[in-house]
Design brief:
- This protein is α+β, with helices and mostly antiparallel strands.
- The chain has one helix spanning 3-26; strands spanning 36-38, 45-48, 68-70.
- The two termini are 23 Å apart.
- Bound molecules: zinc ion.
């Protein structure tokens, strides 16, 4: 992998991280507006409160949601 490609990759990762941090700072899922919470299994992993199987979701109202993001 050349330097230019690596730089582009780093910039893209930084942009994604900045976007993730912006979303997390709102405390709301951008897809369904439910809350967000950390998944403690992995540092910097955030999931929608409606993420996951029925019965395991933090927020059981509304449709299930697959939104998740990483801030690290
Ligand atoms: Zn959601």
């Amino acid at each position: 992998m050349g330097t230019a490609k690596r730089t582009a990759h780093t910039e893209r990762m930084n942009a994604l991280r900045a976007e993730a941090q912006r979303i997390v700072s709102t405390g709301r899922c951008p897809q369904c507006q439910a809350g967000l919470h950390r998944n403690l299994a992995l540092h910097g992993w955030w999931q929608c409160d409606r993420f996951g199987a029925e019965g395991f979701r933090k927020d059981t109202t509304g449709e299930s949601c697959s939104f998740q993001t990483f801030t690290h």
